[in-house]
Design a protein that fits this description.
Blueprint: H1 7-13, E1 27-33, H2 40-59, E2 68-74, H3 79-91, E3 97-100, H4 104-117, E4 121-123, E5 138-140, H5 145-158, E6 163-169, H6 172-184, E7 191-198, H7 206-213, E8 220-223, H8 229-239, E9 246-248, H9 255-261, H10 263-266, E10 270-273, H11 289-303, H12 309-328, H13 333-341, E11 346-347, E12 352-353, E13 369-374, E14 377-380
Parallel strand pairs: 1-2, 1-3, 3-4, 4-5, 6-7, 6-8, 8-9
Antiparallel strand pairs: 10-13, 11-12, 13-14
């Protein structure tokens, strides 16, 4: 059976079509994401993506003729609400799996609920602590913050930078990435000469950036963070005419970051991102070309908005889950968990996923692209 969307998107969802196995009851999947609130620029495209993919799958006949019943809650980025909704999904809605955890904070609140109930949980957040140490029922789709640090430091080393300044958000993501960057920076022969932080509600980072500017020997600056903070940092950075290369994290890898910071202020900023941000630059021979092109076209047609990396995380989580349900031959949570862990060679918008009992992410550093903002758009610079 063919989907009523683009042919390429049909390829993504074809994981579930033409599958012959014993029939089972309609499959109930749950989600809690930050559709509103301070992380809405992450959670809104995630929610839209999941709803779009569920509708497309059901319109195509579901999995072996069985429809997906989708239950989604908006936690507004509040970890307490996320935990409450996760509990509701498990106890009241009786879902077989959960997608969500837009932020590290909400993910860490959902995780113990899913683990205690032995329900597969695929997080959409970045911190390495989500999957290290490995927990039986918890998986994730974004690259880890440690991987982002490594990608950035590789680029700095190529450019001959050995002394840098850091300005990090004190939120869960920023604090985690700062910790991971400091843990591995010595491996690249790079030294941190200035180490500043800012709060998630701060509206001006000029004092911290002035301190970095005044530190002799700094050759580049790294800003681990997500949300509006990095956009403010970028604007203040330009206002102070610091004039050094500025690196941001994968936590702001979206067109909305350029809009918030301003194209002129963001000019030259580098960050690690996914193929999705540069879909139009990928050659047809790229393994991710078809999946990225299909999702981008379908999402932008359905929403009238540009695609984002964060919606791509939800796309991949859904693809992984559907593929696992197909291979598990039923809707038992334990079997689905085992099938997720056995995911191999699944091409998504974020990379090609191959998981194992010791790796509940399934991506390596090659899945990242080093990108630079040029003239208000993204360019591949590696």
């Amino acid at each position: 059976m063919k989907l009523s969307m683009t042919t390429a998107l049909a390829g993504t969802l074809a994981l579930v079509l033409g599958f012959a196995a014993p029939a089972f009851a309609d499959i109930k999947i749950g989600a809690t994401v930050s559709e509103t609130g301070p992380a809405s620029f992450l959670g809104d495209p995630e929610a839209k993506t999941l709803k779009m993919l569920v509708d497309a799958l059901n319109a195509a006949g579901g999995i072996n003729g069985e429809k997906i019943e989708f239950v989604i809650y908006d936690d507004g980025g509040d970890p307490n609400k996320a935990r409450t909704f996760a509990t509701r999904l498990v106890e009241d809605d009786e879902v077989v799996a959960i997608i969500g955890g837009t932020t590290t904070g909400t993910t860490m609140a959902i995780m113990p609920v899913a683990e205690d109930a032995e329900i597969p949980f695929i997080s959409l957040a970045g911190a390495i602590e989500i999957i290290d140490p490995v927990r039986p029922y918890t998986f994730k789709t974004p690259h880890t913050d440690r991987m982002a640090c490594a990608k950035i430091f590789e680029d700095m080393k190529k450019r001959g930078f050995t002394k840098i300044g850091m300005i990090s958000g004190s939120d869960g993501f920023g604090a985690s990435m700062r910790k991971q960057c400091l843990a591995i920076i010595g491996d690249y022969g790079i030294e941190v000469l200035a180490d500043e932080t800012y709060g998630p509600t701060d509206a001006d980072m000029t004092p911290q950036l002035t301190n970095i500017k005044g530190k002799d020997g700094v050759q580049a600056v790294l800003n681990p963070g997500f949300g509006q903070g990095p956009a403010i940092v970028t604007r203040n950075y330009a206002q102070l005419a610091i004039g050094l290369p500025l690196y941001q994290s994968h936590g702001v890898a979206s067109d909305s970051f350029i809009e918030l910071a301003g194209a002129q202020a963001a000019e030259g900023v580098r960050l690690p991102g996914t193929a999705l941000l540069v879909a139009g630059l990928l050659p047809e021979s790229d393994p991710q070309y078809a999946v990225v092109k299909a999702y981008k076209e379908a999402y932008e047609k359905a929403t009238g908005k540009p695609v984002s990396t964060f919606g791509g995380y939800a796309h991949d989580a859904f693809a992984i889950l559907v593929d696992a349900i197909k291979r598990s031959g039923g809707s038992e949570s334990s079997a689905i968990r085992d099938a997720i862990e056995a995911t191999s060679g699944l091409v998504g918008t974020t990379g090609t996923v191959t998981m194992s009992a010791t790796d509940h992410l399934g991506l390596d550093l090659s899945a990242f692209r080093m990108l630079e903002i040029q003239k208000g758009g993204w360019k591949i610079v590696e």
